[in-house]
Each structure stands twice: as structure tokens, then as C-alpha cells.
Input
Amino acid sequence: MKEYDVIVVGSGPGGATVAREMSRKGKKVLLAERGGRWNWLGNTLSVAMILQNSGLTGSKTFPPFTQVTIGNNYGGTSTIICGCAVPPPRKVFDDVGIDLSAEAEEARQELWAGKLPDELVGEANLRLMEAANDLGYHWHKVDKFIKVDKCIPECADCMMGCKRDAKWSARFYGDEAIAQGAELALHTRIEEVIEENGKAVGVKGLSHGKPVSYYGKRVVLSSGIGNVGILRQAGIREAGQTFAVDFLQFVGGVSPHINTSKTQPMAVGTLEHYESDGFVVLSVFPTWSQLGVLLAMKGPQHIPRVRNAFKYTGLMVKIQDDLKGKIHPGNRFFPFTKEPSRNDKLRLAKGVEIMKKVLRKVGASDESIVELNPSGAHPSATCRIGDVVDTNLETPITNLYCCDASVIPAALGLPVVWTVVALGKRLAKHLERTFQ
Ligand SMILES: Cc1cc2nc3c(=O)[nH]c(=O)nc-3n(C[C@H](O)[C@H](O)[C@H](O)COP(=O)(O)OP(=O)(O)OC[C@H]3O[C@@H](n4cnc5c(N)ncnc54)[C@H](O)[C@@H]3O)c2cc1C
Output
């Protein structure tokens, strides 16, 4: 029977980071991933193939229908990110006494984080930034996880997966782990932890539909909301009793001068309201297919607006939402309950007002402006530090850890990848110490 040093469940940014770091340290690593490896990127079909339930995973309670986007594929959700790079906020981690600054700095270059030149940011984004600053806001270019020499102007395909490998995704860390000797088990869905005398010694699940068991000295769960079912099965009832989604809301308008349909998503915006009001505003709008779904959710009478999909100039507000919500493991299409609280709605409304002002400033008429319904951006905070895991990310079961967006102690309200990678690097340092 083969025994691994570290078994990592889930190949998103959290899991891939731990797998990469531990294999670099010479450890025998297994990276188990529920999905496959979809390689035909950059089109609408890719999104449907990569996402759980083709993107239609939602809350049990509706209306309003809270939908979240969860990747089930090698690289996790990071394969279809906008590539927006924001380091871990102290605001969220100071409360639990964790300082991620060293790990975040270590990640900066590895994730290719930096500003893009004007030609890649695009005319529409630059005009939006200028308009917002004329109104007295403080917009700037936002860092992106993008290799400038591989990216091309007038391409907005980040959210469909980058076919040029110009955008960082967890696949790069996963591939490095494999090159360093880690094993990747695709189509392998882990369902249970194997315990002996109160210690985790392995995991069980289905690989290509057949029962499998893997044994390891340390087990790291990085499967997002998937962690909750595995932990509940192991008797950890606290898992999944809180839930944040970083609610977002898009507002678009048709301007005679510009549109963002062929523009780098989330390349400009502002974080100036984050510390005081818990929201950020960034330039991005759904792709035509996402827009169709979001208009249908707003109401059938709005569907005809999809004809403007390639004319809209779009912005998004993203908030730190309240932790109200729960996970219901085992429910395939509706695995949680979550709706915006009164406080969440107030935060979103503040952002919407700012976005409308900016859109009017670039020439969008009030009749053209469409406010889409709030939706969930980042499922997180289901296995929080201080609640389900300790500050070393260990659960009450010895040698069983969680490392992904689920451990974040409060809603981040920001792009998540850099934070999760920093958490993965920090956990790897701790794991290395436990082997000494
Ligand atoms: C459209 C969109 C755009 C985004 N843009 C940005 C951005 O620009 N910048 C940014 O920083 N963030 C962005 N995000 C957020 C970011 O993608 C996620 O927050 C991040 O991927 C979370 O990483 P994770 O490791 O926690 O989980 P995930 O990336 O969700 O990975 C979890 C993995 O676990 C696997 N898994 C689940 N259950 C099991 C199981 N039982 N057994 C085995 N494997 C399992 C899944 O298949 C998946 O691969 C975006 C998200 C979306 C939806």
C-alpha cells in the first residue's frame, strides 16, 4: 500500500499551492481533483465544462436567487478568473492574529502580479478611470496576474479561460508540483477522511466512479464548499454554519463613445471605499452568455437587452457580506442558503450609485443603464479560522487541515486568489515544521 506524505484534496489556488510547496520540499504528494482537465479554453463551452452545474449552483431559498460560480476542474475556479490581483487585506486577518505579508510578497512575482501597459488596459478602461477621477474618486490601474508579453489588446476572454497562457491560474502551480514528483488524480472525488485514534491517516472517495482509499501522513482539504461535507462526515458539525459569497452587482450602460466588451476585465477601479464601507468598484461586465442568464434572473422582460451585450460599458461593485448563510452538503444544485442581508443591500446600493454616476459621465443615458441582480462572487468562510480550524489551519482532528477560501475568517470582499495562495504558502511552512 502506497503512503503519501501529504494528500491534498482540490486543485484550486489553495490546494495547488500546498501541493507545489510540499513537493518542492521533497515530500511525496497526492493532489486529488474531482474534475478533469478541460484544455479547450477561451470560449463559452469552456465555462460550461469547467463550472459545477454549468454555473447554475444556487441558494435553496429564492427569490431572490443567489447564484455562485464554482469551478470543478484542474486549477479550480482560478482557470476562469479575471486575473485581478489584490494582496491579502490586513483588515480581515489582523483579528485572528495572522500576518500574511511575507507569503504575499513571495507570491507576487510567481503570480506575475503587476500593472498592465495602457494598450492592454484598453481605451474604454482608461476613459472610465478618467471619468471617475473627474468626478472626484480615486481610480487607478489594478494589478493583474498577467504575463504582458503573452497577452493581447482587445481581448476580454479571461473569464472563459486564457488560451494563450497569459493569465496565471492554479494549473501553473499544479503542473510544477507534478514536475517535482507529485501525483495528480483527476476525476477523483473525496468523500471521507480515514481516521485512526483521532488522527487523520487518509481519505476515501470515488475515482472514475470506483471506490478508492489513499493513505497519507497529513491531509489537506482544499475543496471549497466541498470541505463541509467531508468535515461533517468526520463529526465536525461547526463546518458550514457560516457562509460568505462577497456579493457582487453589475451595472452596464450604452455609451456612444466606448464599450467594455473587448476590454481587459477588472483592469481599473478603486479600493478607496474598502476600509470605510466594505466594498470595491471595478470595471468588468458579464460575457454575452453570462449576461443572458443574469437578465433572465432579473425577469423575462429584461432578456431582449441581451442584444446590447457587445455595446455595454460595465462596472461591478463587490462587497464584504455578512456571514449569514449555511451549507447543505449533498444537495447538488442548491448546496447552500444565502441571501443578501439588509446591510449587504445598503453596501451594494452605495456602489451602484457610484457606478451609475461614472457611466453617465462617459455618456450612457439613463434608459440604457441596466442594474443586474446581486450574485455571489466567492464562496468562502465556511470553515473559518478560529471556528473550524486553528491559526495553523488544523481542524480538531490531528493532521487534518483546510486550506482554501473556506478558512477566511470574514468575507474578503476582494479578489481571493492572492490571499489563498499566501495561506497555502504559510500552511506549507507549518507542515514542513511538523515533519521535523
Ligand atoms: C468569474 C470569476 C472571476 C474571478 N476573478 C478573480 C480574479 O480576477 N482574481 C481573484 O483573485 N479571484 C477571482 N475569482 C475568485 C477565485 O477564482 C476563487 O476565489 C479561488 O479560485 C478560490 O480558490 P480555492 O482554492 O479556495 O477554491 P477553488 O478554486 O474553488 O478550488 C476548489 C477545487 O476543489 C475541487 N473539489 C471540490 N470538491 C472536491 C472533492 N470532494 N474531491 C476532490 N476535489 C474537489 C474542485 O473541483 C476545485 O478544483 C473569480 C471567481 C469567479 C467565479
